[in-house]
Structures are given as C-alpha cells and as structure tokens.
Queue: 2 jobs
Job 1
Amino acid sequence: MLNVLQVVLLFYFGVSLWAEPITPIPKEVQYDHKKAQLGKKLFFDTRLSKNNTISCASCHNIYEGGDDNLQYSFGINAQEGNINSPTVLNARFNFRQFWNGGAKDLQAQAAGPLQNPIEMGNNFPNLIKTLNNTEYKELFAKVYSDGITKNNITDAIAEYEKTLITPNAPFDKYLRGEKTAINLDAKEGYELFKSKGCIACHHGINIGGNLYNKFGVAKATHSKRLGRYEVTHNEDDKYYFKVPTLRNIAQTAPYLHDGRYNNLEDVVRFMAQYQLGRVITQEEVEKIVIFLKTLSAPVKEIQ
Amino acid sequence: MRFSNVNNLLWVLSFFIFTLFGYMVYSNYSLDKAAKYHNSVHNLELYSKEFDNFLLTQNKFINYDVINKKVKFFEDNLAFLSSQTSQKIFPLEYITLIQKVQKSFSEKEELIEHFKSNNAQLLYSMHYLFDLTKAISKESNTTIAENVKNVELNLLKFYINPTTNTKNITDKISFLESLKLHNEALKYFIVHSKLTLHKIKQFHLMKTKQQKNTLQKNILLLDNFLTTYYEHHIYVIKIVIFFFVITVIAIILLLIFTNKKVEYMAYHDSLTKLANRTNIELYLQERIGKFNQENSKIAVLFIDLDRFKNINDTLGHHIGDALLQEVATRIQTVLAPNDILARVGGDEFMIISENSTKNFRPAKLSKEILSLFTQPIKVKGHTLSITMSIGVSIAPDDDLDAAALLKFADIAMYEAKDSGKNRYKFYKERLSILANDRLDIEQSLINSLNNNEFFVVYQPKYDIQKRKTVGLEALVRWQNPKLGFVSPEKFIPVTEEMGLIIELGLFIFKQACQDFMEFKKHSQYLHSISINVSAIQFYEENFIDTILAIIDEVGIDISSIKIEITETHIMKNIEHSMAILNQLRLKGFEISIDDFGTGHSSLSYLKRFPINELKIDKSFVDDIPQDKSSVAIVDTIITLSKHMHYVNVAEGIETLEQNNFLLSLGCEIGQGYFFSKPLNAKDLITFIQKE
C-alpha cells in the first residue's frame, strides 16, 4: 500500500526513481592523439618535479586504481602531504577537480601539484626552461605552434588524463543489459545502495563527482580539512567536499579525503551513520560492498 | 577633361575601391565574429533559463550529470566571450557587461551547488522518512502512527507550498517527542523530520535568493549590446556596399567615357570638333561600299582657304584658329543633313555630299560656300576677308575608289587655285578642258610659227641698289586666233613634246637679239638680255652653231646674252648639261640658273658649273619677310652668290616691303610686278625712256 509521501515522492522524484541514476562509461572517448601522447610522456616524467624525483604517476598509478594506496601522498624530499590522493581514472567525468573543487577542469588541476611546494615543488618558468633543453622542445613544436608554455604543458597532460577511462566494469555491462554480469548479492546491494539513499550523492556516470556534500551531515566527523570553505571562505561551505567517484573503489583504499578507513565495509558503515543518519545491518553492508566491487575495470590504454 | 586627369581620377577611385573592399572584408570578418558572440550569448540565455528551471522545480533531478554539463557549456561560452575582450573588437562597455555576467554567474553557481547538496540531503531524508513511516505503521500504536503520518503530510504541504504554516508540524513533532520513547524508529523519525523541515526551509530561502539573482538580466544587457552593435555594423556595411557599387559604376562609366573620348579624338578634329581625315576617309569608303549607282552620286568637295598662311603668320595662331572655327560654322549652315564636313588639314576642309541624282548639287553647294565669305569675318577685333578654292570630284563619274576621289578633289582644288583662287573646279571639267586644250594646242601649234602667232615680251631686270633697269628677260607669248591667249606653261610642254621647241627657241633667240639691239639705243644702263633655253635645245646637235650664226647675223655682243636654264633641267643630266654650259661659257655667253632653290641642286656641282647668275625662285620671295625659313633661304642664296661671285636676281618681287627687305639683305637685281610686268617691245622702249 502506497502512502501519501510515497505518491508525492514518486511524483516529484519519480522520474529518477525509475530511470537508472547511474550511466555506464562510454567505450570510446574523443581526444587529440598527438597531444595525448605528449601528455603521457609528461605524466610519467619525473623532470616535471623540482628535483627530478616525482612524476604525476608517482601518486597516480594508473594500473593500481589511479592513486597511490597511501593515506597521504609523498612529495619531493619525502614530504608527506595532508590529503588522500584521489584517483586520476575517469577524472574527466568529475564536475570539478580536487577534493575541494578548487580546479574547474583537468587542465587547471594539472598546474596544482606541479607548483605545490610539498608535491612537485616546481614553477612554470623553471620547468619551461628545463624542458626547452630537452627533446620536449621538438616534441612540443610538433604539436603546438607556440612551443612550450604553461598552457600547453597542462593542456597536454589534461588531454592524456582524458583518455584514462575504465569502461566495461561488470556493473556497466549489467546496465547495458548483460543480466548475468553481476551476481544476485551485487544486485541486492545495488537496490540497497539506492533505497538507503547513497544514490542521492553517488550517481551519474562517475557514481559521484557530481556535487559537493557535507562531510558529516548527521554527526560531526572531526575533519581537519575544511573542504570547499578553503576555496570560497563561505561559512555555508564548511566541511563540504566534492563527492568522490566510486568507480574502482575497491582499488583506491585508504578511503575518504583523510584516508581514515582501509576497508570498504568500515567506510560503508561510516557513511550510513554519519551521512545518512540511519541504521544499517552487517548483511546490508556486505551486499553493498559486493555491489561496489563490481564497479572496477582495467584502464583503457591509449595506442 | 584631360587624359592625365582621367587617369588620376581612376587611380583615386581604384584606391578608394580597394579601401572599401578591405573595409568590407574586415567588416564581414567582424560580423562573422559578432554573429559568433551573439550565438554564444544566446546559449548563455538558454542555459541560464535552464538553471532557473532547475532551481525552481527543485526536484526531478537525481542525476546531476545533465545540469553539470550545462554549467560547463555555460562556462565555455562565457570563456569564449570574455577571451574576446583582449582582442578589443568591441568597446569598453562590452568588458563591463561581461564582468557583470561573470559575477552574477558565480553567484548563480553557488546557488546551484548549494541546491544540489541540499537536494541530495533532502532526498535521502525523505527516503528514510518513508522507510520509518512504514516500520512505525507495522506496530500497533495507532496514536503514534497517526501523528507520524500527520507530520509527513504537513511536511509535504510545506514542501509544495512554502506559505503553509510550519507551526503545525513543529507542534506534532513536539507531541511525538513528548511520548515516552521506547521505539528506535520513532526516535529517528523525529530527528529526520526536523532535518527535512530544515532542508525545505533552506530550499525556500534559495528561491528568494534565486529571484534576486541578476544573471538573466545581465545576459539580456549583453544581448542588447551585441544586437545594437551588430545592427550598427550591418548599417555601416550597407553604406559601404552602396559606395562600393557607386564607385564601380563610376569607374565603368569613366572607362567608357575615356574610351569614347579616345575614339572621338581619333576621329575628330580637336579645334573645330569636325570629323578628321581618317574619319571622313572611312566614311567615304563606307558610303562607296554601299553605293547604289542607279540612284545616287557622291560629291567630294575639297576646300582650301586662300592665303590663310598669311593670316596665321601675321596675326598669330589664335586668330587663325578662331577663323577656322568661324569658317567651319559658316560652312555648316549651308550643308544638307546628309552632308559631312571634315577638317583634313591646317586650312583644308572636305565635304562629302551624297544625294540622289535628282537634287545632286555640288556646284550649287560650292557657289553657296563661296558666297558665304563675300562678307568679311570678324574675329577677335580683326576684320578678315577670306576666300577659298574648292575642288570637286564625283563618284561614280570620276572614280569609285575613295583614295582616288580624294586625290582628284585635291587636284581640282589646285586647279581652282591656279585659275586665280576664290572659285571652284570640277575634276572632270578640268580633265576635259586639259584634254581638249592639248589637242587644240597641238593642232594650232602646227602652223603657229608660220602664222606669226608668237611674239616676245620683255620683263625688266632692275638693279635695286642703283634703281636702274640693267637687263631684260625675254618671254614668249602665244596669241592664237582660235584659242586666244595661251599661257606658256600650257603650250611650252607641248612644243617640247612635238619638237617644235627647237624652231620656236631659235625664233625667240633671234627676235630677242634683234629687239635688244634696238633697246640698247634707248638706254645706256641696259647691258644684258636673258633668253630661256629648254633642255631639249641642249640636245640639238647644232644648237651652239645655230645661235652663233644668229649672233653674227644680228651683230650682237655675245657677252650681253645670258642663257637662262632651269635648275631642274640641269640636274636631269648633269654631265651633258655641264659640257654644253662649258662650251657656251667658252664662246662668251653668260649663264643664269633659273628658279634656283627648287631643283635639289648640289653645291658641289654648283661649284663646277660655269655660272654667272643665280635667280632666286619666286616661291621664296613670296614669303619674305614673314616666313623665317624663306628669309633664311634667300639670305643664304644671296650670301652664296656673293662668295661665288655670281650675280643674284630675286624673282617675283611684288611689294615695296619685299624690295626693301631684299635690299637690306644685299640683293643686287630684282624682277617682278613691283618694277614692271612683262612688256612688249614698244611699251618697253617707253618704259626705259622714262628712267
């Protein structure tokens, strides 16, 4: 029997309840091949850092979930960072970059770690000078008419990162109609994922990366970082972080922006309690974790 | 307009058109850009409306992918628009507008983000309320279940209609709280009801903020700005295109005009605006080509002004030009509509008159033209009397070739001139007269000598310094009973052809010698008699012997006889002439060269000839002292004569002015009407007795 609330909910949210709120990752994406090749070389090149020790790939291992599996990453001179490195995989589908949304797109993001003193510790004038004395001078000239510039370096890296997608996860196959791609527990886990309310934040093509939400809606989480407030300095934005993607979540432990949990069950339980403010049983947690594990797929390598 | 001016104008117009074209290309480029900006602004407008829609309906979106994409598109379009500010295509106002849009957009973006977070929280709260209500309904406590449903209902009312009083909800929640809570589900229900109420309130707060947002308004301002700019540009472009077209037309017209002008110049005389020679020759050819012999005739009138050269030389070219214009104007008054008048030379005009045989009237036309100038012409304060000589040739009678017709008309004109000017002559008439004359002359000549029809007249040769008649030139005249007086120019050539000249020459020679002996008795100054000898006589074997015999018979002193021979004759056979002249000179004759200056004589030969006297041709004397070249020639001949110790004689002196001028040049002897015309023996005796 449907009560009044259910009717109204269906009326107001109804369309979304029936339509799948999660969409599969496309099998192919468009990108500029020349730029991507150049970007790939840069991505794996430690010469981008001040002392030639750190490359982008140091913290974003594209073969192991796109992050470094550390609570906090290490920069040059073994300096420890203060935030968990998010995955670079499928980052193109995020509506903003960084935990606090401080970069509007991948190109803007690429300039961040490069100049962060505790990450790569470099600066662009220096980097351009360095690269101009290497094979990059010729490589850039082939792609960009104006040679090596800040814009061109970040553009190339961003172009490469746009290619880093993980299509064909079992759950995507399931969404595309392959009913046996995931097992019954995973299917039940997905239903729970929706009915518990996780879907309200983790939805869309990237199952997250679509909005900011408060870290600790129902209970205080004692976070050291202030999230979006660090960018806007608006009191309303305190503890609002970008909702992270759940794609390849099984490979990207530790979890949350401060890497406070190492396994999925703990973080699912934490989310139910602190975000949704509701009770969740062990059985439900396990089923949701089974579902989450169906979101992993290998990265599609460019030719 | 002069050609150089036309060319300059063309250059200026070309430059102008080039500039206009450049501006058009630039404007077109600007318009293209403006169109792109416009398109971007339209996108902004579209997305902005969707943002509002998203915020106002605050619901159906559980998947934010769509709205995120729209935010991205909006940002891209805005980035494109603001990137143009650096290119300075638009005025400063544009930058201000863009900045306003950027500011209101960042506010809007904040709202959207807050809405998204709030909406997600509200959504899962409502889900949870739904689960909790179900769980509570399953329990038997109806009071609790009723109140829970009541809270739910009121929350929904408030959600849908923000004006609903929220006191009812808070009261009910307080009531539920007051119940002794043993139920876990109820405890959560109360917490989430409060949370949901709070979220709904925040939604309504956002709606108020949303209404204050000026994004849409700023985009409209930007849109208006671009529309105005765009329209202004189109207006300017229209003007530019207008000028472009006008310039193109101007250039085309100018080119046509220039071409016509060139054509006109090629076929027209610039002074009188009449057709020129080229034009009229082409016209004549064309007319002859279409000639219809049965019905029509074409007359070519060749008109030459008499003594025009004098007017030009004495009064100046500007008077001469004005006179020519007046002549052209007058002649045109008597022309028929079909007649064409052309100026074919300095003072030469030509008329092509084509008419049917019935009213063909070249003679009448010629008479009319001549009568036009019986009244003197007043030109710039000068009253000028002008006459003209007209030659007429007629197609098809004379010929059917244009060049021949022109030549014939020219010949006829000279005939008219020779006949005393101020008259017209037909080519055909002249030809027939000549032909008849020749026949008559030949016939009449046969017995003329025997009939004593020839007689000799004498023209004095006057020493212009001593003012005395010092010599005579013997000239032959022929008075035929049938032909009347015939001029020597006409009959001498015939006698030369007939061989009669030998006999005639001897007659003149003898007569002149006899008469001279008589004249000498009346004048102490007279010491020479000049006798003209034809080249034909030179070839006569016994020529010298014969004349020596006459001299013996008459008893005249050889040295007083001057043999005059024309320069032209000598130059025809130099070696033979020289031999004869040397012999004559050896015998004691004096040698005089007649018509000197007209026969292409070579000075080197001149030196070798045994000459005593040079006679300057009348044609040079006619033109002194006005004509510089004639003066130079006469001066040179006089100087030459003095150096070579020749006597110089100026022929054809007609005026005191000529006489005085020649005197000043050092001329010795003159001959002409100014002193005396040729006289018969009786009159001459009277003339020399008077001296």
Note: The mean pLDDT of chain A is 90.
Job 2
Amino acid sequence: MTGAQFLFYALGLATVMGGLGVVLSRNVVHSALALLLSLIAVAGIYVLLYAEFLALVQVLIYGGAIVILLLFVLMLTRSGESPLVLDNPQKPVALVVSLLFMAIAIVSFFLTRWKLAQAPRGVDFSVLGGSLFQDWVLPFEVASLVLLVALMGAIIIARESPQ
Amino acid sequence: MNYWLFFPELLLVGLAFLLLIADLFLPTSRKHYLAFLGALSLAGVAAAALTLRGEKVSLFSGMFLVDDYALFFKFFFPALGVLVLLASVEYAKKRLTHTGEYYGLILISVLAMMLMTAAGELLTAYISLELLSFSLYIMAAYERDNPKSSEAGLKYILLGAFSSALLLYGISLIYGLAGTTSFEGIGRLVQGGNGPALFLGLALIIAGLGFKLAVVPFHMWAPDVYEGSPLPVTAYLSVASKAAGFALLLRLFATAFAPLMVDWQGVLAGVAAVTMTVGNLVAIQQRNIKRLLAYSAIGQAGYLLLGVVVLSPQAADAILFHLAGYAASNLAAFVAIIAYFNQTGHEDIPDYAGLAERAPFVALTLSIALFSLAGLPFFAGFTTKFYLFLAAAQGGFLWLAALAVLNSLISLYYYLLIVKEMYISPPPPQAGRLPVSILLHGVLGVLLIAVFLIGIYPSPLLTLIQAATRPLFF
C-alpha cells in the first residue's frame, strides 16, 4: 500500500466514524463535534485529490464557520439540555434497508469499469474563478436565489405573528 | 453571447424583487395590489418570451437551452402563476400573514419552473428544482395559526431533502461514468453497458424525481402535505410543481437516457401501473376533499408516466397535452373549492351537500372539472386522455392503456360521489346562498372556457405542442 492509499483509507475511516458519531451520539453538542471531524477528514481527501483551494475553503467555511455557528445555536438555545430521541419503531427496518442499499452500491461499484481521470494537477485560482463565474454562472446565481428564498422562509416562519 | 435570449428570466427576477420591495411600502389593507402586480408581471414575462419563437440555441456552454420546448413552458407556467395569484387574493387576505412575500414566492417559483424546463444539464436542473422546492416548502407552512400547515411544511421539507439527496447521489454516479453533466453528453457517452453503477445512478434519479412527482411508492408525503397546506398552495402544488417535474423528466429521458430505454422502460411501466391503481383505489376512501384530490393527482401522475414509458414523439405530445388539460381541470376544481372554503371554512365532502342551491356556478364548475378529470367526453380530460392512452397503445403498451381506462372508470365513481353530494343531498337547514367574489367567478369562467376549448377544439394547442416537442427528438 502506498502512502497516499494509506492516507486515503485513514481519512475515509475518519469521515465515516465522524458521520456515525453525528447520528449515534445522544448529546447534540457531541454530534456537532463529530461533524467537525467528518468535515475536516473530507478536507484531507480534497488535499489528496490536489484540490488545495477546495480543502482550504472546506476547513474555513465548514470546519470553521458552520460548525461554530451550529455550536452557538446549540448553546444559546435550550436544545442541548433536553436530549432529543428522534427514534421510532421502524429503526430495524431502516437499518436493514440501509445495509441492503450499501451492499448493492458496493457490489455495483466493484463491477463497473470506471473511467480514470487524467493525472491530477493543481487547479489554478484563475481557472476556478473563470469556470465559476463564466461557465457555471447560471447555477451559481440560481443558488443565490435559493439562499434568498431560504432567508425569506426563515423570517416568515420564525417571526412573531403581528396579532 | 446574446443576453436577449435570457431576457424573460432576467425580467422575472427583476419584477419579483420589485414586488418584494413594493411590499415594504404598502399597508396591510392594500397588499392584494401585489397579486395584481404579480399577475401583470407574469403576463409581461410571457409576452417577452414571444420574441424567442423558433430559436434553437444554448447559452452558458449548453446549460441553458432556448428552444420551443422551453418556450412552451414560458407561457404555460406564467399562465398557471397568474391564475393561482388571482385565486389566492381572498384566501390570503383572510387567513395568511406576510402576503407580500407569499406573492413574491409564487413569482420566484414560476422562475424556477421555467429554468427547470430550460436546463440542458443536470446541475442547473437540480438547483432550479431546489429553488422550486424551497419556495413550496415555505408556502406549505404559510398558515401559521394552523398546526396542520406547519406539519405539512415540516414533512415536505424532510422528505424533500431526502429525495434531493437520492437525486444528487444518482447525478454523481452518472457524472462519474459520463464525465459530463450535460444531457446531450450523457446521451452520447452512456451507450453500451458501463456496468451496474449506471443503473444504480439511473434508479436513484428515478427515485429522487419520483418523490418530487409523488408517484407510488414515493407518494407517502403527498396526501398529508396537500391536506395541511393552505388551499391555493395545494392547488399550485398539484398542478404547477407536477407539470414542472414531468417537463424535466421528459427532457431528461428523451435526451440523456434515451439510449438506455430498454433498461428503464420496464421499471417505469411498473411504476406507472402501480401509481395509477393505488392513487385511484385509495382516493375512494377519502372524506376530506383535499386528500381525495391528492390521491386523484397521484393517479393522474400515473397516466402521465405512461407517456414517458413509451417516449415516442406522439407520446411526448400527449404528455404536454394532458398536462395542459389536467392543469385546467384540476385548477378549476381547486378554485371552486377555494370559493367554498373562503365562505365556510369546511373541506369535507359531506359539507358540500346542496351546494348547487347555495352557489350554482361554483357547483357547476366543480362538477365539470371533476367530469373532465374523470375523462368524460366534451371536456378536456377526455381528449387529452384519449391521446395519451392511444400513444401508449401504439407504443406497444396495450395492457397499460387498458389499465388506465379501467382506472379512469374507478375515478369516475369517487368524483360522482362529490357531484351527488352537491346536486342531490339537501343543503343544511338555515344555509343561505354563498357570496362568491367577482374575481373568483372570473377565474372560474376562464378555466371553464379552457376546459371546454381543450376538449372540443384542441387543434391550435396541439399545433403549439407539436412544435414544442420537436427539439426533444432532433
């Protein structure tokens, strides 16, 4: 096993463990910290893929801003104090279905001939900017509309009613 | 690049913002002006789209297509938007707060649907679908004083997020195999079996879109969301979002996945058969009229899937034709229900007893709309279903067409139960005539004309539709 392969498996394991921690932890704050582990590990995978800028952004925005925001929300509201159990009797069924789906996905990934990407090279910032603001500008701008709608929704649903 | 080709969309974004800003300066008693402003805006957008006739180009390196197919929906969705805006006025005044944002969300969702039908690659289609879904999540939860509405919003957003995840996972697998997200590129590259991951991706995309379209077995959210949402939103959900989903599905399968037809045809045929049967059988047992129409909409989605299964040029025409007929009939039914609900606040079928005496025109429109949904002659539903089932039979799916006819007969039974309630059951004592606003009468009249026109003289619409579906088959 080469060093890169070892790193990939280690980071993959960390991502999955973090994800499991988010779902299985009884304490919401612990869930948020497990999420941080998962997100940082994904940043590591980006580094392995020569996408340094993406890795940087991942650490700054997801690892930094979003998780901290999440922790703030948890600490400023009372949601951390009463552990929520969002379970229902369908848990075993869900487990079976998920495992079945995982098995199908793994088997089909191994049986498929994937096209290999060209030898990876670092991505230039100017290339990234060009593709984001020229080729992909339409989905990019639609995404900003999605954010606007989400903000409007947050205000409409969360604001005290005028009466 | 010629930005003029993108003008209707830009205009609509601008007008939606204008409406949201105008909302800040209007007192609560005059918020309904915004509905008329929104209706005018949408009419302007449709007029601007007129200049794009006959174009066939793509913008943003193939992400945004300007062709007759997209153009058809640049008239279709604004028209639906106008009708829903006008039908919402009285309801919004009585039962909703933040009505300005409500009208703004309708404009933004019309934009999202126009983008969905014009998308030429998976990510643009996905993000437009998400824009539509976000607007609808909020609109479903709009009636803040009604816990059922909040429940509808929550259920919708949770299942919507789940289905988006399925769709995205499918898109990522297809991208991994084809190396591109453009529909045309996928169509060229996925020919010849690449292995099972391709089918997994395809299955996930079908499941993800199936949730959005509420086809069985992905329909569980629909009745609860339809029942809990404010009535005009339910009308909008059952007509516009379904039409947008089918428009995207049709373009996606006709251009990207057509080479794989033998692989997905059987699966979709099964889904179509189950969808129409379950939708119509469960509808029989419903007492709440919104739930009944939710299940009837599921049944209609099954009929529409027939066209996607066959995917001949004729079937594509039939899908658009049935979408138009279904939209007119279903909206007419919902506007009649809104008119009744505005005055009484009731929505169970036994409450409709004696409506023919209390509001004759509303009862007449509701009956005609229901007959049209069932597919009786002279109404839109008969002509459009005839085209659709004929296309299915000619495409080699005679058994599916026969099943669809059988299901239409079943649906006639539960539609007739409502008609019987309105015309034969006596009205409750001391129930006088119901006042219905001129605006709602006007909307009902327009829809009634549309139902008859599509049913009796469909050739102008069919000519438009044939031009619209041509770009799908080169």
Note: Chain A has two domains: 1-84, 123-163.
